[in-house]
Write a structure and sequence with these properties.
The complex is a heterodimer of chains A (255) and B (262).
Chain A: H1 2-27, H2 39-52, H3 56-86, H4 88-101, H5 110-117, H6 121-145, H7 149-157, H8 162-200, H9 205-214, H10 218-246
Chain B: E1 7-18, E2 25-36, E3 40-44, H1 51-58, E4 66-71, E5 74-75, E6 83-86, H2 90-93, H3 100-105, H4 116-129, H5 145-158, E7 163-167, H6 175-192, E8 195-200, H7 203-209, E9 212-216, E10 223-228, H8 244-258
Parallel strand pairs in B: 3-8, 3-9, 6-7, 7-8
Antiparallel strand pairs in B: 1-2, 1-4, 4-5, 9-10
Helix pairs in contact in B: 4-5, 7-8
Classes of the chains: A mainly alpha (255), B alpha/beta (262).
Chain lengths: 255, 262
């Protein structure tokens, strides 16, 4: 307990020292304040955005896109992954296609998607959903195929059907792997939302970052980047809390 | 006397080969074995003789390459209702995401007409029998190895099997815990009157627990001899293993397994 507090204090110190050094560098004129405003200015701008209430609309728009695409992509991936992991014929049918599409950087699909779907939510949801889909799918398949054969045999000898074993044995066995995929996908989803927003230019946190840059509101640009960083950090933190509750047996604990 | 009773579980001409071509190994040569209803049969043999494979075939978990299994007159191809297999690897066979109670409930929760409350009450009774009611709400990984194996025993018995097939269930716990588990299993067997088949490489364990002992040869294995232990019951962890009959059985079986003249 004591050492963990100590470790956290050390980590916080690194951040404070870097910010202080930057602040001094800007104030003393070593760094061009027009391109790199001091941390205090950026923090003041960020506070201004929050106080003025102009944070909520872009935040709502970005998080709505992210969560909708994340949920859709994950559910489809888990469903297909369970089936592909259990049914060899399905695995053989789809595995080569998936291996081909999976490594493709998803932002490359933005130009054709804009052609087909325009600049609205449909295009953004599609690209984010596709980005989320693959890591979850691949991890679900691996998790399902890695189910301990002894546990499956226990289900058989105790008279469980294949369907019952899928729900009671295979799915929980695969959950730690599925969660690992979901965590990767959450980060990937946020990246893709921001890129899609920047390209579409119709709103959201990603759009504001590039809009502020184009209109030379450099401090505001950094303020929105800081907001995005806080979003990413919070999402990851919330995810870890959820994971701790969902798969306690797979989380290494200190006790 | 025992041989005159109708066999309850009958293995006829069981063969099992693994692999194909040059890599083909014949694990089980040609096994004929009858299990009598209500008895405690032990199967001993040198390591690698295919004892566990034989037991899995009897449970309907693994197909035989040749031969048939009949339980109560019906051919066994899939795990039948009434036969439960108890695995050696208690750590792998318990579900870490379920509490101890929910692990036991896995044996009955899918039965037709079973409610959640009834499954829990039923499971708790079996946990009480193995002395683990007080840890019902803990998780398996919070228990010792011996306790985990007792949970798997409670789960197997909660399914109310007619035949319990045990694959070296006591081999990975410490010596004292093993003696406690022996006494527990004998007590449960006496009270519940199921048929018990135990695969083990521990001759003392086989002699102490069983009515009859089938001794397998090394692979391709065959049944070398079936021995009636004729040791009185109830048996006692200390005195039974000091009796002259126990020692002579031990001598005879070990001599066979080690390939020495008795």
């Amino acid at each position: 307990m004591k050492s963990s507090t100590m470790e956290k204090a050390l980590g916080a110190m690194t951040i404070v020292v870097i910010l202080a050094a930057l602040e001094m560098a800007v104030r003393s004129g070593y760094v061009n304040a027009a391109l790199t405003p001091s941390p205090s200015v950026v923090l003041a701008k960020t506070a201004g955005i929050v106080v003025a209430g102009s944070l909520w609309e872009p935040l709502r728009s970005t998080l709505y896109l992210l969560f909708t695409a994340y949920l859709l992509g994950s559910f489809l991936a888990i469903g297909l992954g369970l089936l592909m992991g259990r049914i060899q014929a399905l695995y053989d049918l789809f595995e080569p296609l998936i291996e081909f599409l999976r490594p493709l950087p998803k932002p490359a699909l933005l130009p054709p998607l804009i052609l087909f779907l325009g600049l609205g939510d449909a295009m953004k949801l599609t690209v984010v959903g596709m980005g989320v889909f693959f890591p979850v799918l691949v991890n679900t398949i691996q998790g399902v195929r890695g189910t301990d054969p002894v546990k499956l045999a226990v289900a058989r000898t105790l008279g469980h059907s294949r369907a019952s074993a899928l729900v009671s044995v295979v799915l929980p066995s695969a959950l730690p792997m599925i969660f690992a995929g979901l965590r990767v996908s959450l980060g990937l989803g946020l990246i893709l939302v921001v890129i899609a927003e920047m390209l579409a230019g119709t709103g959201g946190v990603g759009y504001l970052i590039i809009d502020m840059q184009r209109s030379f509101q450099v401090a505001n640009m950094y303020a929105w980047i800081l907001i995005l960083a806080v979003i990413g950090f919070s999402l990851n933190y919330l995810f870890l809390q959820l994971e701790r509750r969902a798969i306690p047996w797979a989380i290494p604990s200190s006790s | 006397m025992l041989n005159m009773v109708q066999p309850y579980l009958e293995l006829s001409g069981i063969q099992k080969t693994f692999g194909t071509g040059l890599l083909q190994t014949e694990a089980l040569g040609h096994i004929d074995l009858s299990v009598v209803e209500g008895e405690f049969l032990a199967i001993v043999g040198p390591s690698g003789c295919g004892k566990s494979t034989l037991l899995q075939i009897a449970a309907g978990l693994t197909p035989a390459s040749a031969g048939t299994v009949h339980f109560n007159g019906l051919a066994v191809n899939e795990p039948p209702l009434g036969i439960v297999y108890l695995f050696q690897q208690y750590g792998n066979s318990l579900f870490p995401w379920r509490t101890v109670l929910a692990n036991v409930a896995f044996a009955v929760e899918h039965k037709p007409g079973m409610t959640r409350d009834r499954a829990r009450a039923h499971s708790l009774r079996y946990l009480e029998m193995v002395g683990l009611a007080d840890v019902a709400h803990r998780y398996p990984w919070q228990l010792s190895g011996g306790m985990q194996q007792r949970v798997t025993i409670a789960r197997a018995l909660a399914a109310e099997p007619r035949i319990l097939l045990m694959d070296e269930p006591f081999s990975s716990v410490d010596a004292l815990t093993r003696l406690e588990l022996h006494a527990l299993v004998l007590d449960l067997w006496t009270r519940h009157r199921f048929t018990a088949v135990l695969v083990t490489h521990d001759v003392d364990e086989a002699v102490f627990l069983a009515d009859r002992i089938a001794v397998l040869s090394s692979r391709p294995s065959k049944v070398s001899k079936v021995i009636d232990t004729a040791l009185p019951r109830p048996r006692d962890s200390i005195s039974t293993s000091e009796s002259a009959r126990f020692l002579s059985l031990r001598h005879e079986i070990l001599s066979m397994l080690l390939g020495r003249p008795a």
